[in-house]
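Why does residue order matter? Because the sequence determines the fold. Keep that principle in mind as you read this record.
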Amino acid sequence: MTDTNDPSDSIRKQNPLGKIPALILEDGSALFDSTVILEYLDALAGGGKIIPREGAARWDALRLHAIGDGIMDAGILLVYEKRFRPEEHWVQKWTDYQSEKIARTLDVLEAAPPAIAGMPNVGHIALACALGYLDLRFEGKWRAKYPKLVAWLDGFAAQVPAFEKTKAH
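Structure:
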């Protein structure tokens, strides 16, 4: 398991930023940042598979990708506030601000969960990862208020069995 806080963890050699994810290629080089990795996987699949090439499908996928990334960013900031700052320096206004971003976004998605017609796209993958992160770091507390998103994530996981394999245990 990767520990981004451990100076001796190999992630710092694979990615000088010390961030996950990193994809190690057959030649030993590394790609990092989710967007770059998804671009690579899309190219391997022939292009235009995970990231639609044009039209409304492209912009819908990229918009949903930005939403998933935004949920992740806010969630990571909440985790870091408690991981890296002593409790007496926690800023409630800051954590409320990040929590509200997540709640607003989940409210919008709950009202109209994104449809998956055929192969999931970059947006679906980003959203599934973001919801999985909320499960991992916030004990799945979001699930009680968002049953449609729970069903959406279950459907995604059923359609993409590899998703389950990425969970930290």
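DSSP finds seven helices and two strands in the chain.
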